Amino acid sequence: AADKINLIPQDFFAELCEQIIQHLNHKIPGVNTAELCQRIQTSGIEINVGDLAKIANIVSFLFSTAARNNLSTEELVTTLGNAVSALPKHAVQVIRHVWNEQGKSISVSEDARNMATVGQFVDIKWKLGVAMSSDTCRSLKYPYVTVTLKVADPSGQITDKSFEMTIPQFKNFFRQFKEMAAVLETV
C-alpha cells in the first residue's frame, strides 16, 4: 500500500485523512472513496478506487488503534517509523499534522467498540422506468422502479447498492415503510 500512497498528492492524502477522522468522530457516515478517486484521477494520477479504499482502511485502522491506545503525536510517528519504513515522507507529515490537530477528538467509547458492525444508510434515489422491448419480446411495456441506496459500511467506505422492483413489489416495499413509520410514531 505504501507505493500506492506515494502516488497520492499530499493535499488529497490530507483530505482522505481528515475525512477518516470525521468518520471516526461520527460526524460523517463514511469516506466517499469513489468521489475522491475520481478527483485524483482527474488531476492526472493513475489510481483505482479499490486501492484507495485499501489505503483508507489502513489509515482508519491506524487512527482508531492510536486512539484506543491513547498515543501522542510523537508516539504515533515513532511507531510508524519503526513499523513502516516504506511509508512516504509526505504521508507521515500529513498523518502527524492531522493526528496533532484532531487525533485527540476521536471518541472511543466502550459502546462504540461493542457496536454491531452494520452499515449506515446515507441516501436513497429512485426512478420509474418502462421496459419497452427486448431481444426476446417485442412489446413489453413493463413498468419498474429502480432504487439506489447509498450505504456506508462499518469501515466507512460509501457504496451504492441498486435494485429493481416490479410495481407490486414496490407497493409492498412502500407498505412496509408506512408500517415502520407508524411504529416509529408510537415511540
UniProtKB/TrEMBL annotation:
Superkingdom of origin: Eukaryota
GO molecular function, one term: NF-kappaB binding
COMM domain ranges (all copies): 120-187
PROSITE patterns assigned to the protein according to its UniProt record, in alphabetical order: COMM
Matching Pfam families: COMM_domain
InterPro entries referenced in this protein's UniProt entry, alphabetically: COMM, COMMD4/6/7/8
Function: Scaffold protein in the commander complex that is essential for endosomal recycling of transmembrane cargos; the commander complex is composed of the CCC subcomplex and the retriever subcomplex. May modulate activity of cullin-RING E3 ubiquitin ligase (CRL) complexes. Down-regulates activation of NF-kappa-B. Inhibits TNF-induced NFKB1 activation.
Entry similarity comment: Belongs to the COMM domain-containing protein 6 family.
Protein name: COMM domain-containing protein 6
Organism, scientific name: Eudyptes sclateri
